[in-house]
Structures are given as structure tokens and as C-alpha cells.
Automatic annotation (TrEMBL):
Keywords: Mitochondrion, NADP, Oxidoreductase, Peroxisome. Belongs to the short-chain dehydrogenases/reductases (SDR) family. One of its GO terms (molecular function) is oxidoreductase activity. The lineage of its organism: Eukaryota, Metazoa, Chordata, Craniata, Vertebrata. GO terms for cellular component: mitochondrion; peroxisome. The keyword Oxidoreductase applies. The gene is Hsdl2_0. InterPro entries: HSDL2 (IPR051935), NAD(P)-bd_dom_sf (IPR036291), SDR_fam (IPR002347). This is Hydroxysteroid dehydrogenase-like protein 2. It is found in: Mitochondrion; Peroxisome. Gene3D superfamilies: NAD(P)-binding Rossmann-like Domain (3.40.50.720).
Length: 262
């Protein structure tokens, strides 16, 4: 379904972004990835180049750098155009207001909100030329229960900023570009989860494959499917998936609910 389409995916050197890229590449899609990790990280696996080598992806640059972002878009547009944007790049710090350093606040606002907004803004003129254009943000439904703010206010604000981009752009570009959000029902095993949760946390998590499969379902729908805040498991159940044990790191082990879902 995605053969010949070009996807621009941010934060795709590892984890969820990479899983979505690999899923689409198997369909014959062209993939352009933007990620900050160019040199090997001492604790995190993968770089933008190892991800590219694994699935013959074309490499882009840091989505926060205007110069690199513009060069990357120019390369993609000149070669194939852009059909689908996946805003996956995200920064996280689960700290209270007094404990969150200013540079951490700036990073989360820059990557999560500013990066999502500006990447969408840059892609939109080219997406409008596509037959079935989509923007997909990896962001949660906007749950205003105070419990999701009290322990990590800055992080919550930044993630809801991504979700507000969905609310606004879905209406602004209705009929032209589909804009949706995707969020996991349970914790997903990524390098970030290992750092936040510590040893053994993976047993309470699902694989990134579940989000890749859900993202695929969304971006292959018509552009009239827009303005939705989608939970991965709910969507896949609607699509007929019954076996969710295959997505678990440790089938049968209790799973940890993700943030922002009561």
C-alpha cells in the first residue's frame, strides 16, 4: 500500500521511529529519516547511519536545525516529494517543576513542540501535492486530569503541545492533509524506557512492533480519516487483531499502562 510513497520520519535512529520506518520500507516506501544521533552514543544503541544501512533508508539531519532540516527536505522533495510525515522525535524528563533544569525544559519544548510544529509547517506545502497525505504525531490524547501534570509538568505540557498541533492542523487542512495522533496503551520497550525504568522494566512492556503496525493502519487510510487520537491496541482490535501476546516482551507478564491514560 505504501510502495512508491515517501515518508519523512523524525527520531528514527532507534526505537519507535525506526520500527515504523522498517515497516513502511517492507512495503516499498521511500524513507527519509531525521535524527540527532550521528555518532555512536555511549549508552544508547544505533545511529542515523546504522538505521539507514539496516533498511536502505536515506538519511536526513537534526529536525531542530533549520539548515539541516531544509537541506533534508530539499533532497527528499527533489527526488520523490513527501507523502507522509511522522513526528516521532521526543525528549523526556519526568521531574517536578523545581527539579527540572531550564536546559531540560528548553529541550523538551524545542524537540516536542517546536520540532513537531516546524517540521509539519515545512512539509505541508509538499504534502498538499500528494494523493493521500498524512501527518502522524506520536502524542497522547489530551487528558486534563491533574495527576498527569503534578509530577512532570514540563514534560506533559510539551507532549500536549504535540497533540494541540493535531487538533489545530487537522481542522486547518481538513480535506487536504490527514493529521492524527497515535499513543500506546502500554509501556513500550525502548532505550528511553530502560533508562527511566531500570533493570527488569522490559518485562512490563510491549515491543515497538505494535506501534509500527498501528501507524501503518493509520497512514494507509484515506485522508478523510483525520483529527483522531488513536490508542494502538484499540485500533488494532478494530482491525481484527486478536493475539496481543506476540507484541509482549514477556508474554503473560502484567503490562504497565502508559502515561496520560486513566
Amino acid at each position: 500500500k505504501l510502495a512508491g510513497c515517501t515518508l519523512f520520519i523524525t527520531g528514527a535512529s532507534r526505537g519507535i521511529g525506526k520500527a515504523i520506518a522498517l515497516k513502511a520500507a517492507k512495503d516499498g516506501a521511500n524513507i527519509v529519516i531525521a535524527a540527532k544521533t550521528a555518532e555512536p552514543h555511549p549508552t544508547l544503541p544505533g545511529t542515523i547511519y546504522t538505521a539507514a544501512a539496516e533498511s536502505m533508508l536515506r538519511c536526513g539531519g537534526d529536525c531542530l536545525s533549520k539548515k539541516k532540516r531544509t537541506a533534508c527536505f530539499t533532497c527528499a522533495v527533489l527526488k520523490t516529494g513527501i507523502d507522509i510525515l511522522v513526528n516521532n522525535a521526543s525528549a523526556i524528563s519526568l521531574t517536578g517543576t523545581l527539579e527540572t533544569e531550564t536546559k531540560k525544559v528548553n529541550l523538551m519544548m524545542d524537540v516536542n513542540v517546536r520540532g513537531t510544529y516546524l517540521t509539519s509547517k515545512t512539509c505541508l506545502p509538499h504534502l498538499r501535492k500528494s494523493r493521500n497525505p498524512h501527518i502522524l504525531n506520536l502524542s497522547p490524547p489530551m487528558n486534563l486530569n491533574p495527576m498527569w501534570f503534578k509530577n512532570h509538568c514540563a514534560y506533559t505540557i510539551s507532549k500536549y503541545g504535540m497533540s494541540m498541533c493535531v487538533l489545530g492542523m487537522a481542522e486547518e487542512f481538513r480535506g487536504e492533509v490527514a493529521v492524527n495522533a497515535l499513543w500506546p496503551k502500554t509501556a513500550i520497550h525502548t532505550a528511553a524506557m530502560d533508562m527511566l525504568g531500570g533493570s527488569g522494566i522490559e518485562k512490563q512492556c510491549r515491543k515497538t512492533d505494535i506501534l509500527a503496525d498501528a501507524a501503518y493502519c493509520i497512514i494507509t487510510k484515506p485522508k478523510s480519516f483525520t483529527g483522531n487520537f488513536i490508542i494502538d491496541e484499540d485500533l488494532l482490535r478494530e482491525e481484527g487483531v486478536k493475539d496481543f501476546d506476540s507484541y509482549a516482551i514477556a508474554p503473560g507478564h502484567p503490562l504497565m499502562p502508559d502515561f496520560f491514560l486513566d
